[in-house]
Amino acid sequence: MSELTLTKKDFTSDQEVRWCPGCGDYSILSTMQSFLPELGIPREKIVFISGIGCSSRFPYYLETYGMHSIHGRAPAIATGLAVSRPDLSVWVITGDGDALSIGGNHLIHALRRNADLKILLFNNRIYGLTKGQYSPTSEKGKITKSSPYGSLDTPFSPISLALGAEASFVARTVDSDRKHLTETLRAASLHKGSALIEIYQNCPIFNDGAFDPIKDSDTKDDVLLKLEHGQPITSASHGVVSDGRGLLSVKPLSEIDPSQLVIHDANIQDPTYAFALSRLSGSTLEHVPVGVFRDVERAPFSQLIHNQISDVIAKEGKGELASLLTGSDTWQVG
Amino acid sequence: MRVSKPVVMLDQVVIRFAGDSGDGMQLTGDRFTSDTAMLGNDLRTLPNYPAEIRAPQGTVPGVSSFQLHFGDHHIQTPGDAPDVLVVMNPAALKANIADTPRGATIIVDKDEFTTRNLTKVGYATNPIEDGSLDSYKVHALPLTSMTVGALSHLKLTRKEAERSKNMFALGLLSWMYHRPTSLTEDFLTAKFGKKPLILEANLTAYRAGWNYGETTEDFAVSYEVKPAPMDKGLYRNISGNVALSYGLVAAAEIAGVQLFLGSYPITPASDILHELAKLKKFGVITFQAEDEIAGVGAALGASYGGSLGITTTSGPGIALKSEAIGLGVMLELPLVIIDVQRGGPSTGLPTKTEQSDLLQAMYGRNGESPCVVLAPATPSDCFDTAIQACRIALEYRTPVFVLSDGYIANGSEPWLIPSVDSLPEININLATEPNSENGDFLPYLRDKDTLARAFAVPGTKGLEHRIGGVEKADKTGAISYDPANHDFMVRTRAAKVAGVKVPDLVIDDPSDQAEVLILGWGSTFGPISAAVQVLRETGHDVAQAHLRNLNPFPKNLGTVLHSYKRVIVPEMNLGQLARMIRGEYLVDVVGFDQVRGMPFTTEQIVNATLEAFNV
Prior knowledge:
The complex is a heterodimer. Helix content of chain A is 30%, strand content 18%. Chain A is an alpha/beta fold. In chain A, helix 1 packs across helix 6 and helix 3 crosses helix 4. Chain B is α/β, with parallel strands linked by helices. In chain B, helix 1 packs parallel to helix 6, helix 4 packs across helix 8 and helix 18 crosses helix 21. Chain B is globular, with a radius of gyration of 27 Å. Chains A and B meet through strand 1, strand 2, helix 2, helix 4 and helix 10 of A and helix 1, strand 9, helix 9, helix 11 and helix 13 of B. Strand 11 of chain A pairs antiparallel with strand 9 of chain B.
């Protein structure tokens, strides 16, 4: 392939972007448009498929192939495309309602199959497009239009859910941190198979400030636990230690010896460690790991499918329609 | 092996094998069918089995049966009632005796008519001995003990030996009707080649059954049914689900596209998934999805990438797929939805047949959401219908329904194997370059003739574009909430589907003066045709027409309907086609409806038609 010299502009469509002023989606879109040239993949080979929700308008704004589909079903539709067209780079854009409520079933099955999809889950912890009801990631007790006396639902952790669904790549990043978001997109793009990226995204209209603790310059350095492969997991003031039985906890650095700090290893096959990491952050955002939780090698779904077809053809020969129709039990009349 | 007893010639026979669902009745029926097909008889079959995989042994709900109608002439149905009923236990007798006309032959495994088994199904006395079967020709044979006896030289437990009793019965029936034995012997050898003891047991039981017929005085004569006159050519026996599967593979081959099936297992559609999963050497991708929605979603995703996306389902599965089918309508992508209809609503009757999804296929989506709808008439017609469905889906970029049903899905008939060269062409005609003067690609610019939109698949350089379920502007496909545009797009999608070219309806009326028309659709073709034959033989002029194309209807349908005094529409629902026809053509057709989970009998349609004559 000749060297591609695409720029951000090449990936920007002519459509007017229509999110609310101040929406976190703008920075995610801009970061994505800047990142895509780095893939080195021609525009026609890239497809964005979304479901329904504010985030799902994303594909309209990218000068690639794209489909704005139906609520929750993007992982299923994208799986059909990805396995039938392994030459494409397929991205799924979804939100906390789309991916975890109505489409929860499709998400977990896409992940367990390791379908070749890069799934970007914009988590704003609220239903935006339907104007502000609690979502499956909203904190318990949340007051919304549909929960005036407080939500009674226990929220999902998207990271824990993905790990439980056998996801081979799971990461978390934040809409406003362009650099970290770019790094995370890069890591996901290099992964073969399914990649789930949870992106904390601010909804300025219905859930403004939901992620303030990890965005305010006063607090964020103490809250964000940076996951870097081969490095101890720490924030400015805290570090992650193990109890020796698989449980992890966050302790003030002042109370522990540096040798006690857990060294991050995203490549551990067993998901238990990554799951323990995913439990460090609750709804309160006291300590929030960001980065790649898990990145393990597992044959992608489309590769398995096409290898199986090749193996059968190698063994049985390519199918002949006439002999299929004839079969083995025939009789001649006349 | 040659039969030495006197031979009676018959023109047709209906045999029903009935036993416990663990007795191997479906296999026995299948084997007898293959041997019959090979002899050149025309035939139709009707498997009938419980929804439970292993209902309690020896009970009426656990009875499984297989009916085969074969003859020396064109056979249209599996037969109204059995001439010969083979029953392996009291439950099978109880479940089937009501359908069996007096004078019929009943072959009974009397070993199974124990007090315990009789009590289980509520027989106070043994019907073999109490005279209640006196008006039948009963052959009460110790099938089980004869099988066990024949296998006594093998190292088998009694229970293991008893399992071959269905082969003993098959051997006996094969003797009675002069079926060749080599085919079943070859079949058993292939099936049990790796298990020599099981093979030996089945072959021995099969031959013992045959020899028993030849030597026992219980059967004084045997029967012969001459081959039926059929068009010249090479034939095979085929069921509806297999024919559908082959039609899909053929369509993909002709069109030069990859076949992608997204499906979730559901009875009775699952056999299409099973069949296609075996055909990987054709490059077929089968995706067993997490649910019905993902099955159709993945198929639509594959179609978007240029594959031929198919989804298969039955019963409530079709309801779950509705939303994604609506997306297919909006995106105008190829999609074939195969609905093997079964008794409903809800879970309904999973293993029984019905035609009650027609209105769902037509109207069961939000908004004005037109789809093309086809229905095959017979098991072998499933092949041609599948190809027509795929061609329309690919060429018009539209979801197409194929409404099969449990009756033709599992039933089988001889099929004149078509040559590959005779199959129609399919041209997907993908866009490869910009289609506007300024060099843009307009995904909703339409072909003037078909109204099909320009379709560029991902990977096509320079034609990058976005589509979605939100209403789109004419030509550009950009999001549009403009009222006039929406009105235009709704009408355009409707016009596209209404304009799909389908062949004219063919009328069969040898008298050319019939005033009564029987109009059917789908699997009622067999019983209607058989009834029409009976009516004509008894001096009634009656015309017959059968719809494969339910949306759009054939162009001449209105004219046809208006040229008869009376139009009778038999359906296995409460009048769904009748309702559509009344709405479309203002013709007050006479509906004849039945929802008993079983196909119409010839007699029912004859009687209903005679009634209509007298009105």
